[in-house]
UniProtKB/TrEMBL annotation:
This is Stage 0 sporulation protein YaaT. PANTHER family: PROTEIN PSP1. Residues 71-156 form the PSP1 C-terminal domain. Residues 270-307 are annotated as: Disordered. It comes from the Bacteria. GO terms for cellular component: cytoplasm. Coiled coil: none annotated. The gene is yaaT. InterPro entries: PSP1-like, PSP1_C. The lineage of its organism: Bacteria, Pseudomonadati, Thermodesulfobacteriota, Desulfobacteria, Desulfobacterales. Residues 272-289 have a biased composition (Basic and acidic residues). It comes from uncultured Desulfobacteraceae bacterium. Residues 290-307 have a biased composition (Basic residues). Pfam families: PSP1.
């Protein structure tokens, strides 16, 4: 190497691509392509090539900090790709209607909610939900005979259905699982209790009918902030007198105290005093009971008197 000559390493760029309208954004390596927001592209996926749209412009990224290698943008989409995409959408719609008709005829207890066709392969994937196992062998035979393509039936959970279909949550934003979540963390009712939320199922349940995933986002923070709070039902001494703790205001670092006269007031943690517990009396050690002697059950033999 010539002294004073620097070697510049080409920095890779990451681009955000969406496959459906208002769907999840996936990261890809843009390679040497100069892409702008709204450009249609063909990318490499696990199922083969896919048709997507750029929604996040390319930005440099450090390959070493990336948790996993990124798939690459294969090429820019052309006119024939648009024609094929439109043809695939028509096939998906036709396949969905025919499959639903067959499900009704066969009386299968399953809920079909989506059909996807691979972009560069003659394969249709049918997504459905069901409470139990479904014998769909007759259904697959009908689909292959009618659609003349490979068929895959994939049973999904109720949460995955909401993730794939998308929607708007009660907060007014796109549901989290469809927008950015990659996996589902376990959610429990205790998380709602720790955050002092209403335990009404209609208020803490999502579109899937399960507990909302967002309950896990701030659970650890609330759990940490709640340290040092007196338990509900505990008696404390506040500026207004002696009272019982009935509610917590964790963000405001306050507690609601109900006084003995029936009035309630919010008091800061620094303004309350805890009642000292009376020392527990020492219990006298129980006397050890002596083991009972076993009675001699043998009959004593008496010798008869000599006449």
């Amino acid at each position: 190497m010539t002294p004073g000559k620097k070697i510049f390493k080409k920095m890779k760029k990451i681009v955000g691509i969406c496959f459906k309208n208002q769907g999840k954004v996936y990261d890809f390596d843009s390679g040497a392509f100069v892409l702008r927001k709204g450009d249609p592209v063909i990318v490499e996926t696990k199922q083969g090539l896919g048709f997507g749209t750029v929604v996040v412009p390319p930005a440099p990224y450090d390959e070493k900090k990336s948790s996993r290698p990124l798939k690459k943008v294969f090429r820019l989409a052309n006119e024939s790709d648009f024609t094929q995409q439109k043809r695939d959408e028509n096939i998906q719609e036709r396949a969905h209607k025919f499959c639903q008709k067959c499900i009704d005829e066969l009386g299968l207890k399953m809920n079909l909610f989506s059909v996807e066709k691979s972009f560069n392969m003659n394969k249709l994937t049918f997504y459905f939900t069901s409470e139990g196992r479904v014998d769909f062998r007759q259904l697959v035979k009908k689909l292959v005979r009618e659609l003349n393509s490979r068929v895959e039936m994939r049973q999904m959970g109720i949460r995955n259905q909401a993730k794939m279909c998308g929607g708007v949550g009660r907060c007014g934003r796109e549901i989290c699982c469809s927008a950015f979540m990659e996996k589902f963390d376990p959610v429990s009712i205790r998380m709602a209790k720790e955050q002092c939320l209403s335990l009404n199922p209609t208020k803490i349940s999502g579109q899937c009918g399960r507990l909302m995933c967002c309950l896990t986002f701030e659970y650890d923070t609330y759990k940490e902030y709640k340290k040092g709070f007196p338990k509900k039902g505990k008696f404390v001494t506040a500026p207004g007198g002696r009272g019982k703790v009935v509610r917590h205001n964790i963000i405001g670092r306050k507690v609601a105290v109900r006084y003995e006269n029936g009035n309630e007031a919010e008091v800061g943690l620094g303004d309350i005093k805890y009642e000292k517990k009376e020392p527990a009396r020492k219990k006298e050690p129980a006397r050890r009971k002596e083991p009972m002697r076993k009675k001699d059950t043998k009959k004593k033999r008496h010798r008869g008197k000599n006449a």
